[in-house]
Amino acid sequence: MLAAIAAGAALPVLAAGPAPLRVGPGRTFERIADAARAARDGDVVEVDAGEYRGDVAVFTQRRLTLRAAGGRVRLVADGRAAEDKAIWVLRGGDFEVEGFDFEGCRVDGRNGAGIRFERGRLVARDCGFFANEMGLLTSNDPEAELAVEGCEFARNLRPDGHNHQLYAGRIGSLLVRGCWLHHGTIGHLLKSRAALNRVLHNRLTDEPGGRSSYELEFPDGGVALVVGNVVQQSAATENPILVSFGAEGYRGPRHALVMVHNTLVDERGGGSRFLRVAPGATVELRALNNLLCGDAEALEAAGPGEYRHNPRVDRRAFADAAARDYRPASARAVPADAVDSGRFDGQTLAPRFEYRHPCRLAPLDGAARRPGALQQPAHA
């Protein structure tokens, strides 16, 4: 299933099931927590648009769909947390969650999350995670699978500053696609210890006022496919590295980092690095058709690997770098001279989509012809 999502295939159409459990003022269930206790395996829970304060819940069904109805649903922790962990705790099943914003979770352990995902499979789609201590946090279950699509993460902050917008533990697989992660403070925008990572067509950017540490980190190594992302490091960051691999020691039998058609923008300078790969393991490293901007050290500084066509441009190549619009300014600003991206484990690495701000994907008209994540010029 995750492979199908990564390739851009449509999600399967589910057969008709029982009538949804409806939540909202005047409904059978006025609180989500009540619906969580009543729901059975295979149910659909529909929550009316609006704000729900302190309505925290634990879900343990084997299969469950939760979706907003009629507009967005805003879940404000308001001083409460399920099991002293998160606004929602999900474990043990196959979950799909769509259209919810999770805000303001704080707990004694300083890891209060919008969602704590512990076991099973979770697809989170079109959700927002704002001003929690952690945005979305997983357990370390090696069988768990997490897919995050079209979601926004911003300003999630622990009291000690070591926040992460999205933190995947030692789970089986992680897919992040079409998301916007921004405005971190000291912690990382995306940190993953998953064995298999697909980070496809996202925007990971400090933005004005942001000062995250790594923009993208794989501290245990593993297998990471990083394709079609816009990654920007601000001048205010205290950490000079945009992408980090293996910094906390390698775990597992295989380590590979494949970076294809990303746009990497360094605004810090002064000894910055686009990529650091820690010593200590054999790493299959490939970097092709990435577009680099800034004074950071070249990708090749990361160590032995395959490096092809990773040109460096200045800020004038972008439509409006000051406004963080990293589309090519014109057809000539970033030439259409990309090389063949090849294949990895039998699958093509050529992008089929590009990120459209905010939190959308657009299919490419043919092959990706330019280095970098964004193919469509701002001006002809």
Automatic annotation (TrEMBL):
SUPFAM superfamilies listed in its UniProt record: Pectin lyase-like (SSF51126)
Keywords assigned by UniProt, alphabetized: Signal
The keyword Ribosomal protein is annotated on this UniProt entry: no
Lineage, uppermost ranks: Bacteria, Pseudomonadati, Pseudomonadota, Betaproteobacteria, Burkholderiales
This protein's record includes keyword Signal: yes
InterPro entries cross-referenced by the UniProt entry: Pectin_lyas_fold, Pectin_lyase_fold/virulence
Signal peptide range in chain numbering: 1-15
Name of the protein in its database record: Right handed beta helix domain-containing protein
